[in-house]
Amino acid sequence: MFDFLSYNSMDSYIPQQKQVPSCHVRILQISPRTKKADIYSNGQLIAKGLGFKKFTPYFTLPAGKHNIKALMNINKPALADDTFIIKEGLIYTLALIGGREDIQFILFEDILVKEHENTSNIRLANLSSDSSVLNLSINKGDTLIEDVQYKTSSDYTAISPGKYVLRLEIPERYHVTIPDMEFKDGWNYTIYALGTINSKLNLQAFSILDGNTYLHS
Question: Which residues form the DUF4397 domain (predicted)?
């Protein structure tokens, strides 16, 4: 099962042969100023034409140091150029974020969580540059996740499976309501918050099924 069947498919995907030691990685493109980007790891193309709010399936990369670049044109400077050390057996989401002047990659580990019956697990990743911290509540109730700083994610929080209305809040400044967000039994999700208050791309959020639901090291 690949998460792109449930949410967003990417425009093109080039799989990598599994190597040992290795890890699982997917790439998420949520830089609103970037229409489509080609992603390279250590000079090798790993994703082509990745559009805004699109993501790849998970694929394997060898563990170790990786120089990751995002390019819109191979003859022009990279939009983002970062280096990460990825560890054997782990699961990652590599997100391309930022506006015109601050495009960069952020690496999130999709941490394994214990399975419990009649439970979904969700976490919040704050990629809204307009917010110092974000809170998340459900169905007009108490705050479920709070004080998530920019460019970080919360721990997973267990909730009952079902359909929810989410409230995403910049404390004492602004909030947005996200209706009809459904979470299934035994599945783990990350809710990615992006956008800003004072731009055409308003504060918003969407959820993606995480690979720790179905991938095993």
Answer: 24-135
